[in-house]
């Protein structure tokens, strides 16, 4: 099953795609991690973030490009991520499902 | 502080060189921030913890991905279920129809067809290649057993053994494919 078949995103994938969207052109491992931590309080490891980004890249939901190496990073380059059309579509679908289910829960609460 | 070489290499194996370089760069950048904010000792302690945590979580996620996506693991799981089905059929038949419960009974093998097809169908819902791998594994096992075994086997049993398992797997694959097409 692929995302095109209508499968919803996992929580980590969803959070990371939203962070990539929010960060725009400055989305790389550290900023994505900080964005998620500051907004949700979840302290994800870099390993978790990069494995998930790799999975999203394989699914065609993000594309990656290398930045210039910097001395602060020990001469290593940043890997910047950008969301693709498929990625945006998957985020919309997952957001839509969450919104619909939240509305269902509100309706049930209102009735009781 | 240079990163521990062993973990660096292990991360490289897990993530590939490009992702590993990016991850190590992020760790170095964050560490540099922490040296300024918290001092070198706390930053070094954070770095050691974080590199181990990153390795452990990357390993767990990668293993989970492999199990989920590898058709072999699903096919092997399905093969184990077929073995359980065979043992269950023998036990049930031994009470009601002892002749059919014999190891070289063609009737029992034929009776397992729906169960094999169901198992292959479920495997196909997880990965479309899994039923065909299951069929190939069953064919290989049937060919090995019928050619290497010294026990006497009837022609009906050999034909049933060679065709029912792979046939059931193909039937399951077709059902699974039809379900996907309908969906």
At a glance:
Chain A is an alpha+beta fold and 112 residues long.
Topology:
The complex is a heterodimer of chains A (112) and B (183).
Chain A: H1 11-23, H2 29-40, H3 46-58, E1 62-70, E2 76-83, H4 85-111
Antiparallel strand pairs in A: 1-2
Helix pairs in contact in A: 1-2
Chain B: H1 5-15, H2 17-38, H3 40-69, H4 71-96, H5 106-111, H6 113-126, H7 130-148, H8 155-182
Helix pairs in contact in B: 1-2, 1-3, 2-3, 4-6, 4-7, 6-7, 6-8, 7-8
Description:
The complex is a heterodimer of chains A (112) and B (183). By secondary structure, chain A is of the alpha+beta class. Chain A has four helices and two strands, in the order αααββα. Chain A is 58% helix and 15% strand. In chain A, strands 1-2 form a two-stranded antiparallel ribbon. In chain A, a hairpin with a 5-residue loop joins strand 1 and strand 2. In chain A, helix 1 packs across helix 2. Helices cover 85% and strands 0% of the residues of chain B. Chain B is built from eight helices and no strands. The longest helix of chain B has 30 residues. In chain B, 30% of the residues are buried. At the A-B interface, helix 2, helix 3, strand 1 and strand 2 of A face helix 1, helix 2 and helix 3 of B.
Overall shape of chain A: elongated
User: Regions of chain A with pLDDT < 50 over 5+ consecutive residues?
Assistant: none
Low-pLDDT stretches of chain B are none
Characterize the main sheet of chain A.
Answer: 2 strands, antiparallel
What value does the Rg of chain B take, in angstroms?
A: 26 Å
The residue-averaged pLDDT of chain B reads: 86
Taken as a percent bin, the fraction of beta residues of chain A is 15-25%
- Quaternary state of this entry equals heterodimer
> What summary fits the major beta sheet of chain B?
none
Number of distinct beta strands of chain B: 0
C-alpha geometry of chain B: elongated
Output the number of helix runs of chain A: 4
Structural class of chain B: mainly alpha
Estimate what percentage of residues of chain B fall within beta strands.
under 5%
How much is the average pLDDT of chain A?
91
- The value of Rg of chain A in angstroms is 16 Å
């Amino acid at each position: 099953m692929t995302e095109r078949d209508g499968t919803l995103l996992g929580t980590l994938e969803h959070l990371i795609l939203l962070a990539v969207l929010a960060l725009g052109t400055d989305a790389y491992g550290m900023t994505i991690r900080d964005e998620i931590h500051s907004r949700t309080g979840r302290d994800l490891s870099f390993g978790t973030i990069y494995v998930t980004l790799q999975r999203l890249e394989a699914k065609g939901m993000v594309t990656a490009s290398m930045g210039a190496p910097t001395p602060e990073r020990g001469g290593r380059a940043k890997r910047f991520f950008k969301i693709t059309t498929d990625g945006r579509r998957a985020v919309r679908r997952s957001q839509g499902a969450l919104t619909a289910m939240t509305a269902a829960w509100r309706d049930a609460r209102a009735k009781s | 502080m240079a990163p521990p070489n062993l973990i660096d290499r292990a991360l490289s194996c897990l993530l590939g060189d490009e992702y590993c370089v990016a991850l190590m760069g992020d760790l170095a950048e964050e560490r540099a921030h922490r040296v300024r904010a918290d001092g070198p000792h706390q930053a070094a302690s954070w770095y050691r913890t974080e590199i181990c945590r990153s390795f452990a979580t990357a390993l767990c996620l990668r293993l989970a991905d492999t199990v989920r996506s590898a058709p072999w693991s699903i096919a092997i799981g399905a093969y184990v279920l077929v073995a359980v089905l065979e043992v269950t059929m023998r036990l049930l038949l031994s009470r009601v129809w002892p002749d059919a419960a014999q190891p070289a009974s063609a009737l029992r093998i034929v009776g397992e067809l729906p169960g094999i097809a169901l198992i292959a169908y479920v495997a196909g819902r997880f990965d479309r290649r899994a039923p065909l791998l299951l069929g190939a594994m069953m064919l290989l096992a049937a060919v090995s057993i019928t050619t290497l075994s010294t026990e006497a086997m009837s022609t009906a049993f050999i034909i049933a053994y060679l065709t029912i398992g792979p046939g059931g797997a193909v039937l399951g694959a077709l059902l699974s494919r039809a379900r996907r097409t309908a969906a």
